[in-house]
Write a structure and sequence with these properties.
This protein is α+β, with helices and mostly antiparallel strands. The chain has two domains: about 45 residues; about 130 residues, Acid Proteases (Cathepsin D, subunit A, domain 1, Beta Barrel), CATH 2.40.70. Helix content is about 25%, strand content about 40%. Strands 2, 3, 4, 5, 6, 7, 8 and 9 form an eight-stranded mixed beta sheet that branches. A three-stranded antiparallel beta sheet has the order 1-11-10. A hairpin with a 2-residue loop joins strand 2 and strand 3.
């Protein structure tokens, strides 16, 4: 235990320790190391919490059973579905065409001829978003997919969410809390 072994569930059930488990010396030793382990866990938790620099609170609205948040994509304000299951930020062809026509996207932002299948079986084209502003957090060079379905929802997926350190959803207050490490 002095070397850090603290698997107390195993210690409590290991039949090799049956002969000493009921001795007062063994009980005192286990109690001492459990307390040290708990104290170290609390100290580590406090230290980890102190390492967050900022926590940003981002309001969301519930609409049709999904959470929607406001984002700016290359300066264009849009509302996205906060989708932890989506691998990328997803735009429909309508938004992508509008962004291209109004210089929010350029032909240089298209990432070759890479296509992949999304959850609905649609083929998507990958693009690079120069800037995604999500609750005041600026993320540069974010991968996104353009879905050919004109009615596809805007999804804020893992290509943004995967860059964030800690995400909490407060449904009572309709807030998404983003904490970033130092």
């Amino acid at each position: 235990m002095e070397l850090g072994y603290n698997q107390f569930v195993h210690i409590d059930k290991d039949y090799d320790l049956d002969y000493i488990r009921d001795t007062q010396e063994f009980k005192d030793l286990i109690q001492q190391y459990r307390k040290q382990t708990e104290t170290q866990f609390i100290e580590d938790t406090v230290q980890a919490e102190a390492e967050y620099t900022t926590t940003t609170e981002i309001p969301f609205i519930k609409e049709d059973g999904v959470c929607k948040v406001r984002c700016q994509i290359n300066g264009l304000p849009l509302h996205f579905v906060f989708d932890t299951w989506a691998s990328d930020v997803t735009l429909s062809m309508v938004e992508a065409t509008f962004m291209m026509k109004n210089n929010y996207l350029s032909p240089n932002d298209v990432i070759g001829n890479q296509h992949y299948m999304d959850a609905n079986g649609n083929v998507s084209t990958l693009i690079n978003l120069k800037n995604v502003n999500f609750g005041g957090l600026n993320l540069n060079n974010v991968r996104a997919s353009v879905v050919r379905d004109q009615k596809a929802p805007l999804l804020l997926g893992q290509s943004v969410l995967g860059r964030l350190d800690k995400i909490e959803i407060d449904n009572k207050k309709s807030l998404i809390k983003i904490s970033q490490f130092k």
